[in-house]
Structure formats: structure tokens, C-alpha cells
Amino acid sequence: MPKGIMVVQSSPSDPSREDEYNAWYTDTHLPEVLAVPGFVSARRYKVLGGGPEGHTYLAVYELEADDLTAPVKELRARGTSKNDLPPLGPPPIATIYELLD
Predict the structure, then answer these.
(1) Which CATH architecture has domain 3-98?
(2) Helix, strand, or coil here: 34?
């Protein structure tokens, strides 16, 4: 079965809402994502030292599926709690990578 990762870069719209953003991501969004077949695990990271302009957070999701885009499509079809999300900064950037043999 093919394996891969989905990398998502995101940020809260306002640094004063960072705690709210992280609570939503950890307590609500990650469990929703990991409930979708094909998503195996997730890890989150925060850029050190302020980093370049743009996104502050990175999420890496491990995928295992015959079609690596299928879990993402299923996640979108299920809908998520994005309406409960504190406003995001720049639009999130999601990229899927397939593991090479």
C-alpha cells in the first residue's frame, strides 16, 4: 500500500488568538483528521526564531492508502470543525508527498 505525508502550513490571524488556535487544532481538528481512514499519525511543529514571513505552524500527517489523495477527499467530504476555528492568517498550504521506494 502506498505511503506518504501531507504537510500543512498554517497560522492564526492574530498572535493574541494563538492559544485558542492551538487548542482548536490539538483538541478538535487532529482527532477529526485521525478518525479518517488513511490518516495514520500527525505531528505539529512551530517555527523557531520567528522564521520567515508567512506561516508559523507546520503539521505533518502520515498517510497510507491505495490512493493517497483519497483520505484528504474523505476529510473534506465529512466536513470538519473549521467553522469553530479562530480566523486563520494567510490561507493554509497543504501538499501531499508520496514515499519513494
Answers:
(1) 2-Layer Sandwich (3.30)
(2) helix
How is the chain split into domains, by residue range? 3-98
Residues 6+ apart with CB under 8 A from 86: 12, 13, 14, 17, 20, 21, 24
Contact 7, 95 (CB under 8 A): yes
The pLDDT tens digits for 10-52 are: 988 888 888 988 998 999 889 999 999 999 999 999 998 766 6
Residues forming a β-bridge with 7: 60, 95
What pTM value is reported for the model? 0.89
Q: What's the pLDDT tens digit per position in 58-94? A: 999 999 999 999 999 999 898 776 666 666 778 888 9
The residues pairing with 46 across neighbouring beta strands, listed in sequence order, are 57
Cell of 42: 500527525
Q: What 3 state SS string does 39-83 have?
A: EEEEEEEECCCCCCCCCCEEEEEEEECCCCCHHHHHHHHHCCHHH
